[in-house]
Design a protein that fits this description.
InterPro entries: Beta-glucanase-like, CBM2/CBM3_carb-bd_dom_sf, CBM3, CBM3_sf, ConA-like_dom_sf. Helices cover about 5% and strands about 40% of the residues. By secondary structure, the protein is mostly beta strands. The protein folds into 2 domains: about 170 residues, Immunoglobulin-like; about 260 residues, Sandwich (Jelly Rolls), CATH 2.60.120.200. Strands 15, 18, 19, 21, 26, 27, 28, 30 and 31 form a 9-stranded antiparallel sheet that branches. Strands 16, 17, 20, 22, 23, 24, 25 and 29 form an 8-stranded mixed sheet that branches. It has a 5-stranded antiparallel sheet with strand order 6-10-3-1-12, with no helix packed on it. The chain is elongated, with a radius of gyration of 25 Å.
């Protein structure tokens, strides 16, 4: 306890440290941006500080925020708005207390992936802007919550959240009778279920896009629709042009080319999109080989173009709980406030278009991805994992898992007209070699490549055995 005394911390808030955690010392700082007695969302913003003398891997650390539920059958969902460590590296799950009190019967437990790294002595995680809300989006009463303080609008040490290191309590005072206990030292003998299968007979979709034109009858017969007319996303007044979705020779076969053309005006902007007609894809492995382009084929560079591969369930109403989306979005010239190449992997729970309110989380990479890349998304009942060229780049859990069937989509569109204001026409290309989906199977990147190679060796240009429901 000498370390916390020297640091001026609230030592009285600490319980005796178990021997297994005695070497590590952590403190928690709390504030809230939703200070009312009731709120649409509870917003426990947190920071952790290493007050000890050894580095602490954050993947070993959990934080608990305790609250009184609004009813025994009420469900809650977690979201991360922003974090210095990256929302993709922060998890949130809910638990029920074994000894309920007048101010707490549940808790939100915050955890960290390996991507969050470690805290060296004296280091702080920085801001973690966290929130949770009722699954039915009803108002939450938080004035009776154990860990809540509407007066704490600036970060300060807070003893009513607890910090656990490898399951052992190292900071804070839990509600009476609810001290967290370390996890068992032996792993469970039964492996977790779900995912990891490689059933060769699993329902699957494969398309190598060997069509003649966007009006080829086989496109519709194979379950695709090519977008036309106007409408979002992107610049209002731009046109979705089927004629600019073409199929071009590349080596030994064809690839699909999604061209975006603009002269810096909405009327002079043509975009492309192709989507499955069936909303029948949920858990499983999604993969595509995609060629991004950083520069136009002619004319000035700099437009805020968006080159994508994604899956989604449509939004039928503001904050629709059944909406979902998992995006790869590559912005070769930046956009949305970014000024350089950036790839986003974004998982969506829901949103309200007006006024804007988004419940999502994302990973990101600041680098050029010009050229061909293997993109992959796996979804099971616990997580969404994004891969680029065989490497994991983001992992997201609840509340972002899809609730129902989804479409598969590729589009190439212009975010705004601010990137390049010249009037010289210019065109950008995004190309797709193939798309592959296998239902309810979480495959490794190597397994995907093996399956695609097998299909091509067998001369399979198209296959769809995924049931419609």
């Amino acid at each position: 306890m000498a370390v916390c005394t020297a640091a001026g911390l609230a030592c009285a808030a600490l319980t005796a440290l178990p021997a297994s955690a005695a070497q590590d010392s952590l403190s928690a700082q709390y504030r809230t941006s939703a200070s009312g007695a009731t709120a649409d969302q509870v917003e426990p913003w947190l920071e952790l500080t290493n007050t000890g003398s050894t580095s602490v891997p954050l993947s070993h650390v959990t934080v608990r925020y305790y609250f009184k539920s609004d009813g025994p059958s009420v469900g809650y969902k977690f979201a991360c708005s922003w974090a210095v460590k990256g929302c993709a590296n922060i998890t949130g799950t809910f638990g029920t207390l074994t000894s309920p009190t007048a101010t707490a019967d549940r808790y939100l437990e915050i955890g960290f992936t390996a991507g969050a790294g470690s805290l060296t002595p004296g280091q702080n995680t920085g801001d973690m802007q966290l929130r949770f809300y009722r699954a039915d989006w009803q108002t939450i009463t938080q004035s009776d919550d154990y860990s809540f303080s509407g007066a704490q609008t600036s970060y300060a040490n807070w003893s009513k959240v607890t910090v656990q290191d490898n399951g052992s309590l190292v900071w804070g005072t839990p509600p009476a009778g609810n001290t967290p206990t370390p996890p068992p030292t032996s792993p469970p003998t039964t492996p977790p279920t779900g995912g990891g299968g490689t059933d060769p007979n699993a329902p699957a979709l494969f398309d190598d896009f060997s069509y003649s034109t966007s009006s080829d009858a086989a496109i519709q017969q194979h379950g695709w629709t090519v977008k036309s007319g106007q409408g979002g996303p992107g610049v209002a007044g731009a046109t979705w042009s089927p004629q600019d979705l073409t199929f071009v020779a590349d080596g030994s076969g064809k690839v699909m080319n999604l061209k975006l053309t603009t002269d810096g005006t909405a009327a002079g902007t043509r975009e492309t999109e192709i989507q499955t007609t069936a909303q029948k894809f949920k858990n499983g492995t999604y993969a595509a080989r995609v060629k991004f382009n950083d520069t136009p084929t002619g004319g000035p560079d700099g437009d805020h173009v968006n080159q994508t591969f994604f899956n989604f369930t449509p939004l039928n109403a503001p904050m629709d709980p059944n909406y979902s989306e998992q995006d790869f979005e590559y912005l070769p010239n930046g956009g949305w406030g970014e000024t350089q190449n950036i790839m986003y992997e974004t998982s969506w729970e829901t949103y309200n278009p007006d006024p804007w309110n988004a419940v999502n989380t994302h990973g990101q990479q600041y680098e050029s991805l010009d050229g061909w890349h293997n993109l992959q998304i796996t979804i099971d009942n616990t997580s969404i994992t994004y891969y680029i060229d065989g490497q994991v780049v983001a992992t997201h859990g609840e509340p972002y898992l899809p609730e129902g069937g989804q479409f598969i989509d590729f589009n190439h569109w212009l975010i705004d007209l601010a990137g390049q204001t010249g009037s010289t026409p210019r065109s950008y290309n995004e190309q797709v070699d193939y798309v592959y989906f296998v239902k309810d199977q979480v495959l490794s990147p190597a397994q995907v490549q093996s399956a695609v190679s097998g299909l091509r060796t067998a001369g399979t240009a198209f296959k769809d055995t995924v049931p419609s429901s």
